[in-house]
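Re: your question about DivIVA domain-containing protein

S., sorry for the slow reply, the queue was backed up all week. Below is exactly what I fed in.
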Amino acid sequence: MTYFLIFLAVMVAAAAALYVVGLNKSAADAPIYEDALAAPVANLPPVLLPGTPMPADVDRLRFSLGLRGYRMDQVDEVLDRLRDELAGKNLRIAELEALVAGTHDAGDSNER
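Result:
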């Protein structure tokens, strides 16, 4: 009887090991982006930026909480940097447009 129990324990351990190895193999074959969770909830609105995002649009972004969400401090840091970059680019564009408008006005007055 003792040998039977030892044999049964070894068989159960082997079956569990094969099961775990099978799970790891199927997970390795799956794409990285594939998630084991179900499809996202359909009634949540998408998180979108407008066609021409402004720095204030980045401040208004809010993401839904999820089981496997992102670290909020990292998302906030990236969004803050994106907002600052957008503000800097908008300022530079305004400066260049003013410069171009000034050269066009000077060029028009020289032609007359």
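Helices lie at 2-29, 55-59, 72-111. The chain has two domains: 1-34, 53-112.

Happy to talk it through on Thursday.
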